[in-house]
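Schema walkthrough. Field components (list of strings):
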Amino acid sequence: MESKKNYKIYSVGENAITIDFGNFISPELNEFVTNLADLIENNKFEGFIECLTAYSSLTVFYDSYQVRKSEEKLLTAFETVKSHIENQIEKITDTKSTEKRIIEIPVSFDEKFALDLDFVAKTNKLEKKEVLKIFLSKTYRVFMLGFLPGFAYMGELDERIATPRKKTPRTKIPKGSVGIAGKQTGIYPLESPGGWQIVGKTDIELFTPNDNSPTYLNAGDLIKFKKVK
Amino acid sequence: MSILIEKTGVLDTFQDLGRFGSRKEGINPNGAMDKTALRLINILLGNSETEAALEMHFPASEIKFEKQTLFAIGGADFTAKLNKSPIDNWQIHLAKKNDLLKFKNKHFGNRCYLAIDGGYKLDEWLGSSSTNLNAEIGGLEGRKLKKGDRIDFNNTQRSNNSIPKIKIARSIIPKYSNFPTVRIVKGSEYNDLTALSEQNFLSQSFKVSANSNRMGYRLEGTELHLLEKKELISSAVDFGTIQLLPDGQLIILMADHQTTGGYPKIANVIEKDLPLVAQLGAGDGIGFHLVSIEEAENLKLKFEKDLSFLKIGLKLS
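Field assembly_structure (string):
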């Protein structure tokens, strides 16, 4: 893969390093960084804390004291971790696309939940039912989790229904609300303030803190929304 | 076997050194704002450094000890009084049954920690007892304390409750100030600052705005600009990341920061200086001094070694 040679690597303080493969959203790049994170998690180094994958970047968190202590070299922890990551990149010969589960998420688009469906329709000069038809026709990829526990950033939306965030965020968005922000879609796992355009609501519990796996969705999952009455 | 909250504080939560390993699920680490204060009072009491303590803001809770225990306070100075007697930070004290701990004035700083011998019995989640207010989990039922709350102690208290005569060396306590210059390392967009903005960033002082909390501090000061406006897609941020907002002002992300962010990342406060930031409040000032990654790592290395010596020293005394 060409892009794997084309990256920017920088520190996020003295305990984290980010390797950034490009400032754009692509399923292939996202697959690549997810695979790289798996490799690093399976080849932990002394002082390793955790990996976080975003759209097209991977951040490795570490304890620079532990890294330095275990290395009797004159290298900085940053240099040590950087070369560890670069060695792992060399191991990836091509982006293997692992079998993905497709998760169906039932959503109610009832007026009382779809707070901004009118706005999304008007902004894009469409009928509401056309918005829903386009929205439901695609399978979305979970690119990353962030913002709130279990909040999945999914994409990409059809250009015809992409809508910018609200200028003034709502102070309270109900749990389970399905929103649109630009070409992204996402679901609020908890009640929270937020600026996404709300088009529906699901009853699926996206964040179950006491389960072994507290989040319903994970990076790399494929999602299909289904309309419920 | 417990403490009882007699009067509700403005924002008192249990925090430890943080919850790690779940950022990829959108679960941020939380944890104490001033981790050095937390570590020092735990070390003083002979606790594990990872033991949770009560993090208090001012006005703080009034706390009744329902059992005799050794305890220590550190971080901010809220002029603590045990019954009528003033007590100092960074020392071990003995509370007898029914003693009342009150905090009279905000003398210095914004976050004061109360640790007890052996630690509190708390809700643990994903390896940490830190309170996650968003997810309403960890600490005590995932919320701030209120009047009537009773928090049990772990059953690991020392049987001998005589007060060990030990103190922490001044040199290892953070050099708190209400106008600190904190050391930073470059962030991913540092080099995109205009020459004038870079100069202003490193030479001007910034004011901590009232819009500051455990998630982050909004700063007020000279507007900074990038050479060209950048639309970034979200990537990881950390405690201490300094972002440049669209209005040209800065925000420093703190312990309850979100896991990812899309604003330009100008710099990161080095770990050793985060406690200085953690004790700031609205109206305080801050300045920035640039160091290399190597210097930042060396400072951390030296600090961790000093802490190890402190631990050995306390064990010997």
